[in-house]
Every structure is written in structure tokens, then in C-alpha cells.
Amino acid sequence: MNFKKIAAEAAIRFIEGNTIIGLGDGAAISYMVKALTVNKNNSLTLFTSSFSTKKLLEDAGFTVNEISAVSALDIYFDGCDQFDKNLNALKSGSGIHTTEKLLASMAGQFILVGDESKYVDALQTKYPVVIEVIPDAIQFAQEQVHKIFPFCKMQVRESKTRYSNLLIDIWFDEFPGLPILNSALKNITGVLESSLFYNMAHKAVIAGENGLRVIEKQGYSS
């Protein structure tokens, strides 16, 4: 069974008419676009952090608005590499996490969507933490990361971001405490954002062999 598709179609149920929606990137989000196309609602105002999602939406006849024109969303949906029991997530693959975090921060609800393989009790180091860095800070940022986390390994990606910045993959044998990791990376001058989505998501919709689950952040009430 296609559990990402099942989760995506379930996530659509959170969307009501006349709402401002943000969509991220990944397979689950592409299934959400297909579901939106089947049940087309022209009252939605749509934004996306992803060029590929934008193309899917426009090909389906939706209008995609410029992010710079908005300051608040009703809901933002996104996939991830993995998320933990507290809904902290890693989104390391596409390198668009700065824009994804911008939309997630604007949203009244930030909902993760995917299959059950994305869920772990604690984030695992099979994926790097990625930081977006302005070009002039590329050496400085690496030196600062190494000072704080001397046992990590780093690799600068060849690709650039939509803002013409650089990406550094940071690999750990074991993650430090997530609050420490999150604040340490954010406080390095020249670093825009990291791919660690710490304390941001409100819900997760996941599907698997044991059925469909909606996980809510502890203490969150929609």
C-alpha cells in the first residue's frame, strides 16, 4: 500500500474553504496536490516553499502566490526525513529549509505528513543537519561549528540555494541535546537557518501497517 498517499489524503481533511495554505516539498506533498486537484477548491490561497510543488500546483490550474506577499498562513504542510515523539523534525535533502521554516513560522498550524517510517522516538544521525550560509561566511561558519562540535564532520555542497547561498552538511555520530544544537547553529553569524525543525510542528499525519495516526504536540490544542 502507498502509505504516503494515504497520509496525504487524510491531511487534506484539515483544509477548509477560504483558508491560506502553505505546502512544502516531497512525495507526500505531491500526493496532497493530486488530492487537492481531485477535490478542487478555488477559495484556497496557496503558497509553497518548493519549485517542484509550485509546478505541480500550476500544472493543476492553481494560482501560487509569492511568499513575500504574506505574513500569516492558516496551515502549513510539509514532509520530512524523520521526526521524533516531540515532533522535532529533520529536513535535510532539498536544501530549502530556510523558506520552509519561514512558512512554518507563519502558520497557525504546522502539520508534518508522511509514512510511518518517518517516525522515530529520538532523531537519528543517519541524516545530516544542514545549514544555509552566506558565501562570505563559509570558512568562518565551518570553524565555529567545529569549535562547538569538534567531533562532527562537514561537507560543503556544490549546489546553491534559491538565495544564492551555500549549504553545509553536518554529520554527527550522536546528536547533542536538540535545544543546544538548535541555538548554537542559529547563533553563528552568517548562518541563516538549519534543517533542524526544533519545537515547530503542531501535528503529524502518518500512515502505516497499523493504520492512520494523527500525532499532536503535547499541550497543543487546535
Automatic annotation (TrEMBL):
Entry's EC annotation: 5.3.1.6
MF terms (GO), sorted A to Z: ribose-5-phosphate isomerase activity
GO cellular component, one term: cytosol
Keyword Plastid: no
GO biological processes: D-ribose metabolic process; pentose-phosphate shunt, non-oxidative branch
UniProt-listed InterPro entries: NagB/RpiA_transferase-like, Ribose5P_isomerase_type_A
Record keywords, A-Z: Isomerase
Protein name: Ribose 5-phosphate isomerase A
